[in-house]
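Lecture 7, part B: from sequences to assemblies.

Below are the input chains for today's worked example.
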Amino acid sequence: MRSKNHLFSGKVALVTGAAQGIGRAVALMLAEEGADVAVNDIQKEKGEDVVATIKRIGRSSIFYEADVSSFRDCEKMIDTVVKELGGINILINNAGIVMDQLLIRMSEDEWDRVNEVNLKGVFNCCKAALRYMSRQKEGKIISITSVAAQMGNIGQANYSASKAGIIGLTKSLAREFASRNININAIAPGFINTDMTKNIPEKAKQYILSLIPMERFGEVEHVTHAVRYLASSASDYITGQVINVNGGIYM
Ligand SMILES: NC(=O)c1ccc[n+]([C@@H]2O[C@H](COP(=O)([O-])OP(=O)(O)OC[C@H]3O[C@@H](n4cnc5c(N)ncnc54)[C@H](O)[C@@H]3O)[C@@H](O)[C@H]2O)c1
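Predicted structure of the full complex, as structure tokens:
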């Protein structure tokens, strides 16, 4: 089944939060391009559906149910991926949540939970995967941050801070692991049509659209194209960068 012409033939990838939305699209793209793909999420049924689709494409795949905010679970997850799929070459840190609230009403729990999943989750998976990647002196890590990290957003103090943290983490790790031939980058999507953005009230949506030079929300494929580039050898001399996929809302 596996063809040498595929971009990621012989590679093993793990995508966190891959049961739906951007993560699902990224997992399927990597499989279409020849990778064996581990699907992580807290949504078992939907995650297993993605695994079944990957297997239909002809690639190996496993579902690993884990909350990325648990370091221990992330370590176990990466060990399982290596054992079951034979290695770990590409890590996509995609799992993320929002708990929007004006600061005045934001609880400590809402602050903590969003930072634990969005930021600590990236730390956990990077630390666990880099044990293997640094030994093999090869790897690609791509974390999904957000335009909210760069511009801020009303009602998203927790989310913006967690996503800005990903950028600092990415740049530090890129420096630490550059000599090991590991590329560590981030992608900052603007507003992409997924479940995460489907409940934006119409008035707010019209305001956001008025700020986007391209006058529309993006699609998950716009993000997967950037992932394809950063996960491939085409980007071998690129590390510590943030690629904006945002229709021009932030330049
Ligand atoms: N949609 C957008 O406009 C947009 C913009 C910028 C950044 N992003 C980021 O892109 C990523 C994907 O977003 P999406 O729009 O596809 O959202 P989504 O809500 O459709 O998907 C997120 C996935 O992450 C999973 N998840 C949540 N908490 C988890 C946890 N603790 N452990 C493991 N998995 C968990 C969810 O179950 C879900 O499947 C997120 O990091 C999000 O912050 C999205």
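Note for the exam: Residues 12-245 form a domain with the Rossmann fold fold (CATH 3.40.50.720). Keep this in mind when comparing with the next example.
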